[in-house]
Amino acid sequence: MTASQPAAQTGTSARPKLAFRPLPVPQVDVRGFWGDRVEAVATRTTEILYDRCVEARMLEQIDPDVPSPGVVIPFHVSDGFTARTVTTQMFWDSDWGKTIETAAYSLYRRRNPDLEKKIDAVIDMYGKLQQEDGYLSSWYQRIQPGLRWTNLRDCHELYCAGHLIEGAVAYYQATGKRKLLDIMSRYADHIADTFGPEPGKRKGYCGHEEIELALVRLARATGNGKYMKLAKYFIDQRGQQPHYFDEEALARGADPKDFHFKTYEYNQSHRPVREQDKVVGHAVRAMYLYSGMADIATEYGDDTLKVALERLWDDLTTKSLYVTGGLGPSADNEGFTNDYDLPNETAYAETCASVGLVFWASRMLGMGPNARYADMMERALYNGSISGLSLDGSLFFYENPLESRGGHHRWKWHRCPCCPPNIGRMVASIGSYFYGLADDALAVHLYGDSTARFEIAGRQVTLVQTSSYPWDGAIAIEIGPEAPVEFTLHLRIPAWCRNAVLKVNGKLADLEAATVDGYAAIRREWRQGDKVELDLEMSMARLFANPQVHQDIGRVALARGPLIYCVEETDNGGGLHRIALPREARLEAHKEPNLLGGIVTLSAIGNRAEAENWGADLYRPEPPATRETKLKAVPYFAWDNRDPGEMLVWLREG
Predict the structure, then answer these.
(1) Does residue 41 carry a pLDDT above 50?
(2) Does 523 score more than 50 pLDDT?
């Protein structure tokens, strides 16, 4: 399949010269660790997503040639209220959008005429469904006609539009087919005619952020600056007074205070975005908002947004983030609670939230290479997000706890199936997170076997990266420009790496002098066959939590390179809470090519409190006896892929 390139990048914004944009998926081939995962999504997950959408009756809702299925999933009724508020069926267009996006990247990876035919048929249905003015919502056209744009706070119209837009851009880039891109451009035109600061337009924005980053992608793909301007409007308008959600509720005859969460912190509209300094509310919504803000900060060189984003980043990463890159500890609001509240067994840590953190971090890198963002992107990628997908690509986690007594397992589907296509599209598009391209620079954010093709200073360049990362830190990069060309190559030096060595064409480089914000910068005229070697020590580490995280006092987590590890019952027996790891215990790494697709495990000699001879007493004045035990840890992302059982990330120390 010939991949079509995006349209000319013109007229989108006053983009700063040093802005970095990700390479489109068709320009990056991934192999090795991520290649295996992309292959699993391409060969299995994508078909599963489509089939389960059909089983859930989502196809019936978008097909105007068959009777409407009506309400398939009941409305949620808020506590204490009799009014129906929301059903996850309202969001089905978003599930189709993410499924189309996953399919697009999968089709680029591997031809599948049957899958392509199915997706083309879905696109045809959306084409038939679209109204003359461009409006497109299967819920408000097929289930609740006449109520469009009446409840942006709860009902996700713009959120659904955003995911369909992202699916349209991806499908166009991967297949060259414009039909869905044209459909969604018409819808975006309608949205731009409906919302904005101009007289007569609605002053609203979505209760569930997503449209903002989707419009940026559409602007970049089409070159139409109107979409970038609309994305900026939605960012700027959020939280302004008079509050749009209050006015909207009054207009439909409702009490503005009569909604389930009773606070606009839930959807981050409690203040204008530049005044926000605390990460609050629904975790996925927050990550999508900050992603959109970072895109606009990059495109417009907006330092006021950048300052706000840095405040929010600091708040999240110093007070409310799991060691796995998971976030949002509470199931009640699918989001944040109090500072340092990070329970392990009851952690919600929705897969979509970690995926959203990857989105946010990658977009912060648009403003320039900075390892504080890239390191966190890597942490969330390798741990809190891909744990949401089984190794064979068939089963999914919605929640990602850091401790399990043996009852938490991946499921086939979910009443609110947002996570399966979200992790699917992220994994299938992983190549776009590896590299960032500016006018005269390329940044390498992630390491692993891959080939990137890009144009810089008017020259076509191929970059081939060879590595068995994340199992090994030896990275070889070969540069292949069609003709000699000068640009800066930025290479991330992860914070977890204690020792790194850099060579250019066999000559040792002064890494300390070359490194700024965690990236080594090499500026030179690159010629065919130039080679860069980067050797990152795969350090093993014991990690300790801030003492204010009371759940982790006296406990230790294990890491090697970018990976967080856990212990499972299948390797260590039951009663994992009885195992302790002494501070002086030596950690060892072992390559196990036949385990869990080929991994590196960690082992150490620990102690296990004996329960066998305790007897029936609940309490005693003497401590239990202990015996020496060998513990074995596997990467967190790979847990629950073998025999079911207990799991633990944070081990007792002692």
Answers:
(1) yes
(2) yes
The structure's pTM equals: 0.95
pLDDT exceeds cutoff 60 at 628: yes
Q: Is 403 a catalytic residue?
A: no
What distance in Å separates the CA atoms of residue 37 and residue 301, rounded to the nearest whole number?
A: 35
Between CA 566 and CA 577, with CA 571 as vertex, the angle to 5 degrees is 55
Q: Specify the residue for token string 């009446």.
A: 150
Nearest-angstrom CA–CA distance, 291 and 268: 13
Interval 379-395 mean pLDDT: 96
- H-helix or E-strand containing 235? helix 225-237
pLDDT for the residue numbered 261:
85
CA dist., res. 155 & res. 139, Å (int): 10
3-state secondary structure 98-117: HHHHHHHHHHHHCCCHHHHH
- Taking the C-alpha atoms of residue 22 and residue 216, their distance in angstroms, rounded to an integer, is 13
Residue bearing tokens 């239990």: 624
The pair of structure tokens assigned to 508 is 């040792």
CATH for the stretch 439-536:
2.60.40.1180
Q: How far apart are CA 240 and CA 234, in angstroms?
A: 11
Q: Is 151 helix (H, G, I), strand (E, B) or coil?
A: coil
- Average of per-residue pLDDT values in the chain: 94
Using the structure block, give the residue that is written with the tokens 């700027």. 236
Q: Which two tokens stand for residue 322?
A: 């799991």
User: d(Cα 633, Cα 566) in Å, to the nearest integer?
Assistant: 5
Question: Catalytic residue at 592?
Answer: no
User: What letter represents residue 514's amino acid?
Assistant: A
From residue 630, alpha-carbon distances to 58, 111, 201, 568, 587 in Å are 50, 47, 67, 13, 11
Q: Which of helix, strand or coil describes residue 451?
A: strand
Catalytic residue, candidates 101, 157, 334, 350:
334
CA–CA dist 164, 372 (Å, integer): 31
475: pLDDT strictly greater than 50 = yes
SS3 176: coil
Describe the strand order of the beta sheet including 530-536 as a list of residue ranges. 28-30, 450-456, 459-466, 474-481, 530-536, 500-504, 507-508
Determine which one of 418, 419, 497, 566 is catalytic: 418
Helix (H) or strand (E) holding 184: helix 179-194
Determine what percent of the chain is predicted with pLDDT higher than 70: 96
Question: Roughly how many angstroms between the first and final C-alpha of the chain, as a whole number?
Answer: 57
Q: What are the boundaries of each domain within the chain?
A: 1-10+23-254, 276-431, 439-536, 540-653
